[in-house]
Amino acid sequence: MTITTKHSTRRQLQTANATVEQARARNNVLRERFPPRPTEAWWPATAQSADEVLHRLTAPPFSPAANATRAGRRRGVAKLLRWLSSLPGDTWQQRWKASRAEEIPGAAWTDLPLRFLRQSRPSPSYERVDLTSGLLMLVCGDVIRPDLAWMLTRTHKHLAPVMAEVRDPEGFARLAQLAESGPASARGDATIAATRIAMLLACKGGSIVDITVGDCVELVDTLRRVHARGGQRKIDFYLRLRALDVFPGDAPATIRAFGLAAGRLSIEELVDRYPIRCRPVRSVQTEPSSRSPVPG
To answer: Of these four, 188, 203, 207, 241, which has the most CB atoms within 10 Å of its CB?
Structure first.
């Protein structure tokens, strides 16, 4: 006589669900214990006058050796300050937010200041390059702090090198030493990690030693929301910061311990992974009628 066990599959499913719930509860506890730094509304550098900002960002350590680079950065800072001065707000951060530039992904945000600048004179061919250089200076000089999600829509070839020059030479030197002690095959990952770390300084302020575990978790959650790919390179920066003893001793060995942000991605978040600039097109993609049809 053959004896069969009923509902074995159901018990396995219940066990699996219990394990998932336990993991989610543990992840939530970790997230509460290691929160990200809160977004600040005011800090000294963002409240400086235009003259003070221009003077500071065109003097050492912000003035590079190359004359052309130095001139382009100075022009860019001056143009952006002129544009931002036309917007409401008591600080440069408030004016930057009022510009709504972060609603435009990638490099196309320069259309906004260009429109303003072209009202008084024709635009030279190098205007966009000036504006991009000027934004780099304002960000690395902690005059404005862009949103993480917006920063992740752009390329940042020069962000980490400039941060290393003007914000935290010692911290980035230690990071470079760590990369040099590793295998040569991992140098590309080290560059990506340095950019991620520089991005946290750009959006949160401070130096590398000020980065918290929660900041890293917030960045990984935002990466998941904004990007479809990335794999291990998304989280390598956490391991490097931990190796530099930036985190407290009870910090998890890997950022994977925090799990993913609660819940599945919404339709809007999935669509926002792609650079759809036309708002009506984006709206069509996220309307209920545009979702997968019900088979009939």
So the answer is: 241
| DSSP codes, 36-47 | PPPPPS--GGGG
Among 162, 150, 236, CA closest to 192: 236
Model-level pTM greater than 0.90? no
**Buried b / exposed e along 187-197 (16+ C-beta atoms within 10 A):** eebbeebbbbb
Please state, in angstroms and as integers, the Cα–Cα distance from residue 42 to each residue in 39, 134, 152, 161, following that order. 9, 21, 23, 26
Closest by alpha carbon to 192, among 153, 221, 232, 163?
232
Q: How far is CA 59 from CA 44, 135, 207, 244, 258, in A?
A: 18, 16, 20, 30, 42
Question: Could you give the CA distance from residue 178 to residue 6 in angstroms, rounded to a whole number?
Answer: 56
Q: Give 235-277 as a DSSP string.
A: THHHHHHHHTT-S-TTS-SSGGGG-SPSSPPPHHHHHTTS---
- Kindly state the tokens that stand for 151: 């920063």
In the chain, % of residues over pLDDT 90: 66
d(CA 204, CA 194): 15
pLDDT at 294 over 50: no
Q: How confident is the model at residue 23 (pLDDT cuts 50, 70, 90)?
A: confident
